[in-house]
Fold this protein.
Amino acid sequence: MTGHNKIAYRKKILATALLCSCLFLLLFVRLVYICVWQADYYSAKADELHERERSIKAARGRILDRNGEVLADNRTVCTVSVIHSQIEDPEEIIRVLSAELGLSKEEITRRVSKVSSIERVKSNVDKSVGDRIREYDLAGVKVDEDYKRFYPYGDLASKVLGFTGSDNQGIIGLEVIYEEYLKGEPGNILTMTDARGVEIEAAGERRQEPVAGDDLVLSLDRNIQTYAQQLAIQAMLTKQADSVSILVMNPQNGEMLACVNVPEFDLNDPYTLVNAQDGTNLTGKAYQDALNAMWRNGCINDTYEPGSTFKIITAAAGLEEGVVTPESTFSCPGFIVVDDRKIRCHKIAGHGSQDFVHATMNSCNPVFITVGLRLGVENYYKYFEQFGLKRKTGIDLPGEASTIMHRKEDMGNVELATVAFGQSFQITPIQLLTTAASIVNGGNRITPHFAVMTKDREGNVTNAFQYPVQNGIVSEKTSETVRSILEKVVSEGTGKNGKVEGFPVGGKTATSQTLPRGSGRYIASFIGFAPADDPQVIALAIVNNPKGVYYGGQVAAPIVRQLYENILPYLGMEAYNE
Amino acid sequence: MAGERVMRRRKEHSEYFFDYSLLFIVLFLAGFGLVMIYSASSYEALQENGDAAHYLKKQLIAIIIGFVVMIAVANINYHFWERFYILGCIVAAGALFMVLTPLGIESHGARRWFRIPGIGLQVQPAEIAKIATILFLAVMVCKMGSSIRTLKGMCILLIVPGILALIIKVVTNNMSSALIVLAIAAVMIFVASPDYKKFILMGLAGAAGVTVLVMYIVSTGGAGGFRNERIIAWLDPESEGLDKGFQTLQGLYAIGSGGVWGKGLGQSMQKLNFLPESQNDMIFSIICEELGLFGAVAIILMFIMLIWRMMVIAQNAPDLFGAMLVVGVMGHIAVQAILNIAVVTNTIPNTGISLPFISYGGSSIMFLLAEIGLVLSVARRIQLKEL
């Protein structure tokens, strides 16, 4: 070989070594990029892969009444799960779990043999049972503690509070509406595992503590609710009624003090039908329908023809528009002819000559039809909308029903006449109560509501709820006139059974026939507020299909009277002495 | 380098020297490999074989045998092997066809090994082909002399390695070993030829070809066999359902979660069945996970030093044959180490290449140690006065 050649290949060897070194340097740069810049990303991904997650339920926020009484609480229960990869003795596990949990062996076998990272066998297991299972110390069986909803007062305000499902999620009522405040943040127990899911003992576990949900403070008063419920049950039994509802509200701000719908149901056992004989042989859809009917809050989810209580609205509209004054005189021959229709008064002989105050006290239909016709469709519809009757009230419960009303262009005089005394259209009880409250409170359309605020466990307020108020739906003067007329209704008129010794009460009765007409089914109702000159509380009692006497003045007014006799002193109102 | 010792050697053996630095680097890498193989494989080995040290023991035996072979080869004059250059290729080709006989062993869905009857030793014949290629080309370069400069001479040199690579690819379906044989040939021809321009042009043409191919595969969405799928998995390892993407991604998780300082020796999570081949082709990612960027840099530096040592030996070799032998071995080790780390870091598409001296694999470590023996043998013939 020549010397020239030798130098050439030596250079080539150096070039090769340098090239290799450069390539190694490039790989080093690449490594720095992965190990430094992308380290967080890949670490997180790897942790995700290595860690098995078992979630820890967060304690759900409690529900408290206005005085801090606990209406919905949590009880510690256990969730039993099996981890397939860790099971050593499946026979023993099947034996123990079926004995302790009361599940069939087939069911447990199915869970145990299922190849999954973690399989839940049963949740909401009593803590004592969970502790017993834990003592067997079976490999592959996990007992995790969590919380189950517990309602100390059973069926109290059941259709308002609602209940929760197996994952502690709200199913109906306030539990659903305030889910995001109540549920909290679930925590996690993270355990390191290999690729087959076997836990690595030495690695220990990492806990992410759950954050408890906030407590929900309601305007509801447990004592008023309890008493109202007793009155409702009493009325339902004595009048053999299908159902009785009582709503109690503060008319100044819309805070609900009570909302009773008997029959109520047991919140701790919401899947058992109240009427056991109905539930024995119901299955599938029929059973679910029966449950839904039982859970239904009639005051919010159902509409009815309000009847004469609606005369408050007609009166307010007439007075506001100036087509009638308390001194206006009318004559009632026992009927009125509207276009070609003859509409009867409930008093067939007629009320004769009377002023507007007495017409209201007598609940005289022809007079209110006359007022409605004086207003005309255009104006009547204007007030109907102005009072907020076409909108939902916005109450904080799910499934509020909408008003069913004639379309304006379809409304003739006959329709107008029937609407004027509360027939031929439908609204919810809460809509009636809210509208009446807004008329007598000085003309401020309030939003009925239960939730006042949320608090954390230390008692700090985390949210104070604000509800819209629309001012001036009627003038203060009209409001005052309506109040004084309605006080007369109770003190001397059809509502005299609603009179409370020592307190001025205003109110209006109603006896509405349910559809179809002539079925002999009635709804007796009474709406009353106190004190009549400055209302602090307003209540609506509705008795659905009472047997025997069915007049609102006889059936519903006494309920409100008894309620007021107790709660007015309780609410700190002082009786005047004659 | 232990200068004092070299001085002493010079006195004892007059002008010859033994490269202890090279020996030390190789021993360090092999010993470090044993530690990492144990770390990476013990969890899986305990599950599958009931013995945490299963892979460690097998590798240790292979290293001891390889070490003996290395010392023996180092003490034989390398010119002794010159006469076997054609026989070596024939043996390599024959050995490759052995995998088709009943002696062949199938593993991981490919027949790449055969068992030597009697002693039960498993051999991967592709390793024989690599060493045969090195010997063959070293001899041929000397025989051809200046005719190597021509394109024709270059093509003649490529014929035998090309045939061997083809056999590896077709018979054992081992693309990566075939590529390594070709790469060794390319490095040796590059060094033997005094020309640069030709190689730079070919390199550019090759790079352009690869780019066009990748773009074509991407545009067709990887429809066309698992090699194309590898390209797609390379570009987007997180796309779902690709086997090779899964392994690459698991490797990246390991490297990324090791970060700069690593989790500590033995603390890898990815070796717990998550990362397939964690003691084998993917061992570098476990090194990164446990020892971090610093551990990885230490290994890369060791390889650079190894290559540098071999460069010095090749440049000072007493003749062209010795120099070409060393260049071949240097090319082999450099190509495998670079490609392995490139695969593990997802710099190139995934293909099964082991990390020299460190990855688990008996044939690989034994033949590598034999090659180091050759290099040491060349080093011993260096007359120190030439230094």
Q: What stands out?
A: Chain A has a mean pLDDT of 88. Chain A touches chain B through 39 residues (CB under 8 Å).
